[in-house]
Structures are given as structure tokens and as C-alpha cells.
Amino acid sequence: MSEFKMFQKLIYNDVGISLADHKRTLVQSRLRKWIREFGLSSYEELYEKIASDKSGQMLMLLVNAITTNVTSFFREENQWIYMQEHLNEMFDVKNRRIRIWSAACSSGQEPYSIIIFLKEHLKNFDEWDIKILATDISEEILKKAINGVYTKKDVENMPKNILLKHFNSIKDSNGISTFVVKDEIKKYIIFRVFNLVTGDFSMFKNYFNIVFCRNVMIYFDRPTQNQLLEQFAKLLNKKSLLFIGHSESIHKKDYTYKLVAPSIYKLN
Ligand SMILES: C[S@@+](CC[C@H](N)C(=O)[O-])C[C@H]1O[C@@H](n2cnc3c(N)ncnc32)[C@H](O)[C@@H]1O
């Protein structure tokens, strides 16, 4: 399939995602399904349909097909432990201001975990000015995040008392329980579509105390990762933290950052 290269190029140029050659079979089978569904006759026709779609929705379908939205509450346990241990020195106590960015928030478990964590551990939580920016490239997944409705399986690892305190439990017409994040948690979070590769970082005017950029850099090649890390560096100060996923790393030769704990970085 020589068209694979065309799709590879499209997704790299428009989204920054590096589609590895070994994903060829997976992508091929997904695309074949769409060719049937859309009543098209070739990969080329599908390519044209995606490339000429100004709304970007077709491209998003492609992104959703090759990336995963897998996430969970309180993922990467050591990072939550680290925060708990360093809570007193992490934030600006004088101004009582906290700004955190969940930079590929998927269906919302990450930003909701952040607020729940702060509510549980930060002394005098109500006296702080707290805002969480939660972004993702996918509008569809953000809708899910904004709704904040989760299944029993989604919340199965959450301690019962936390679940009861921060979620409303609702039974649907089939008697199946769903768990809805309470408004008093939601109100701290601003959800926005943002592409980490092509997005305009200059619109962020202030420093973030923490940037969560977890399990998304794996889709980018090294130059794209470096470009993203450079952008983050402009939005962090010496006390800020950058959290990445456990299967990700920042190149040892990148002297902008220093590792302070597994998958946790500070500016050098
Ligand atoms: C595996 S999820 C990670 C969710 C969460 N950060 C975590 O670690 O649990 C990856 C997310 O990255 C998003 N994504 C992929 N490419 C992106 C890009 N260029 N800019 C922003 N988000 C992107 C996907 O839509 C997906 O929701």
C-alpha cells in the first residue's frame, strides 16, 4: 500500500503524529473499513476525502483510529505520592494560586484526579485560587470529559469514601450505576481543544505549577517531542513540575530539564 506513506505524511504534517511502519496493517484494516462505510472505492479516494475536509473531523477520525484514549483516575501512582510529599513547597503560598495543565486529558480522569487530590490534601483548599486547564486534540473525547460520567469499571480502583464524596451515583433505566463528577469538582476545570504540535503556545501568559503531559509524547518523533518540550519550558518556572508517562522519557542530552523522580522533571 503506497498510500500508507500518504496517510503517514498527512498525519505527521497536520497532527505531528509519527505513524510507525509496523502500524501499517492496523491502519490498512481500519481504512478499508471506512472505504466500505463511506461507499468509496480506493485508499486514494479516502485520502482525498480526509485531506479536503476543512472541518478537520475526518482527520480526527484518523487520529482516534491510531491513538488510544486509554486513561484512568490517579494513573502513575508515584506522581501522586510525590505531590503529596512535596505539597508544601510546590505552590505559591503567598498568592495562594495554583495553575495546572493537563495537556492531553483524554476523557477527563486526569484533570478530575488533580482537583480531587487537591481537595483531599491541600490545607484550606477553599482559600486557594485554583484553575486546571485540560486540553486534548479530540473534540469527541473532550465532550466525554466535560460530561464527567463514568462507569463502575472506570472508578473501580477509587477508594469508596473518595467516590462517595466527589461523585453522584446515578442508576440508568437499565438499573446500571454510573458515576458523575460533582459540579463542585468540575467548576475548577476549563476544557479546550488544543493540538500540542500545531497549537499556539503564545496564548498562555502565565506559568503553570505543573504540566501533566502523559502518554501522548509516545506518538511523536524526537524532533516533535523536543519542540514540545521547548514550548513547555517557556511555561514553567524553577519550581514547576513536568509529569510525563512511565513509558516516556526526556533525552539525557536535553539539559533544559532534570529528572527529580521517575517520570517527573523540573527545569535545570
Ligand atoms: C493515552 S491518552 C493519555 C491520557 C492521559 N494523559 C493519561 O496519561 O492517562 C492520549 C491522548 O492524547 C491525545 N492526543 C494525541 N495527539 C495529540 C496532539 N497532537 N495534541 C493533543 N492531544 C493529542 C489523544 O486524543 C488522547 O486523548
TrEMBL record:
Which PROSITE patterns does this chain map to?
CHER
Q: What is its EC number?
A: 2.1.1.80
Which keywords annotate this record? Methyltransferase, S-adenosyl-L-methionine, Transferase
Question: Is S-adenosyl-L-methionine there in the keyword field?
Answer: yes
For the biological process aspect of GO, one term held by this record is: methylation
Domain CheR-type methyltransferase span(s) in chain numbering? 1-268
Q: Which InterPro entries match?
A: Bact_Chemotaxis_MeTrfase, Chemotaxis_MeTrfase_CheR, CheR_C, CheR_MeTrfase, CheR_N, CheR_N_sf, SAM-dependent_MTases_sf
Spell out the reaction equation it catalyses.
L-glutamyl-[protein] + S-adenosyl-L-methionine = [protein]-L-glutamate 5-O-methyl ester + S-adenosyl-L-homocysteine
A Gene Ontology molecular function term of the record: protein-glutamate O-methyltransferase activity
The protein's enzyme class: transferase
Please report the name of this protein according to its UniProt entry.
Answer: protein-glutamate O-methyltransferase
